[in-house]
Amino acid sequence: MARIIYLNGQYLPVSHAAISPEDRGFLFGDAVYEVVACIHGHLADETGHLDRLERSLNELKMRMPVERETLRFLMRETLRRNKQKNAAIYIQISRGTAKRDFKFPAADTPQTLMIISYNHDYDNHVLYEKGLKIKTLPDIRWPRRDIKTTLLLPQSYTKQLAVEEGYDDAWMVDDEGYITEGTSNNAWIITQDNEIITRGVSTDILNGVTRTAFKKLAEPLGYKITECSFTATEAYEAKEAFISSAGTFAVPVVNIDGHIIADGKRGEMSKVLHDEYRAYVEGLRGQQVSWEAGL
Questions:
Q1: Which residues are part of the catalytic machinery?
Q2: 116 phi and psi angles, rounded to 5 deg
């Protein structure tokens, strides 16, 4: 069966979908996106992802091309047409097609809305047990990292540098020597005193929707989360380290710049958080939380 994509009012086979070469997402990266996990038919943190999508659009002076409830329907219909119960749903909205010009086109320019879904196995991800090897590298992104845009070349280039040195991913480091986040995820460490630390919200990072849910889930467990900056050296000395994202939830980090974390094994606290998030997605931990920029 051909994979189906939603594009500007039509459901099409992926091979038949076409976007204008003058689309501003293609020419300038003038677009925003979100990724929503569908696990056993449940959409994980759908409310939070749509909250963040609307905020990203507002920050770039773009509007929602359809009502939120319409977008919710389109996501589900794309899944239905692809017969998917376990998938990653990718939503991208650009400012639309216009003559190439650095200034924005007219406000009534039709936007481009694309929804595509990818099969994804959230139950048997090898990295949950194997863990990640992380390389720390300079953060070379633009200053508005709080907006989830398609301007991803710096992250892609940074991850490639890490992979070429035998690592799985990179944690990016600011000019003062503090970890900001991973190339497509938030970075976490757990101290020897069981304090969970992640960088505070600012324009330096993208405030993760999964990160927001972890903050809610940690409190009933008696886990203490502190939002503050930490260095690579502090990460080397951590009891545990992990990443969080919509596609991975909580994946252990077992090696940072050659320093072995948690004896090279998955730590207990990050595993508990991962399992709690799965229960939360299945509706066993109350309503899913809203998302706020927190700036």
A1: 148
A2: -135, 145
- Name all domains of the chain by residue range, CATH numbers in brackets: 4-119 (3.30.470.10), 127-281 (3.20.10.10)
Which range (118-122, 135-139, 165-169, 196-200) has the least confidence? 118-122
Name 16's Cβ contacts closer than 8 Å, sequence gap at least 6. Answer: none
Which pLDDT score is estimated for 129? 87
Task: Give the Cβ contact number of residue 16 at 10 Å.
Answer: 11
pTM of the predicted model as reported, rounded to 2 decimal places: 0.95
Q: How far apart are CA 74 and CA 82, in angstroms?
A: 12
CA 42 – CA 226 distance, rounded (Å): 30
Name the amino acid, one letter, at 185.
N
**8 A C-beta contact, residue 286 and residue 45:** no
